[in-house]
Amino acid sequence: MSGTLLAFDFGTKSIGVAIGQRITGTARPLPAIKAQDGTPDWTLIERLLKEWQPDEIIVGLPLNMDGTEQPLTARARN
């Protein structure tokens, strides 16, 4: 499957962003998005979606080192 992927790494102060291409198997970081207590700048996210028009959106799930969930895990799911 070819396409563009837009990925987010959830955090309470900053949200990491990366753009990837399935056809080339490459990805590169984009500038992080500031967050206010885990709430992202939705206007900026909307701009990224319009600019890159991804085929898929990926949100990283914050887990503990042993793979168990933590309080931040539920917030990322929402």
Outline the structure in words.
- It is a single chain.
- The protein has 78 residues and is α+β, with helices and mostly antiparallel strands.
- It has one domain: Nucleotidyltransferase, domain 5 (2-Layer Sandwich).
- It has a five-stranded mixed sheet, covered by helices on one side.
- The longest helix has 11 residues.
- The termini are far apart.
- The mean pLDDT is 92.
| Gyration radius, rounded | 13 Å
Head-to-tail CA distance between termini: 27 Å
The CATH class name reads Alpha Beta
The low-pLDDT segments are none
Do you know the CATH topology?
Nucleotidyltransferase, domain 5
Give the helix level as a range of percent.
10-25%
Strand arrangement, major sheet: 4-3-2-1-5
CATH arch. level architecture:
2-Layer Sandwich
The helix count comes to 2
How many individual β-strands?
A: 5
CATH superfamily: YqgF/RNase H-like domain
Which geometry do the CA atoms define? globular
Instruction: Give the SSE order as H and E letters.
Output: EEEEHEH
> How many domain regions?
1
Portion of residues in beta strands equals 35-45%
* Major sheet attributes: 5 strands, mixed
Overall pLDDT, averaged? 92
SS content category: alpha+beta
Task: Describe, in short, the structure shown.
By secondary structure, this protein is of the alpha+beta class.
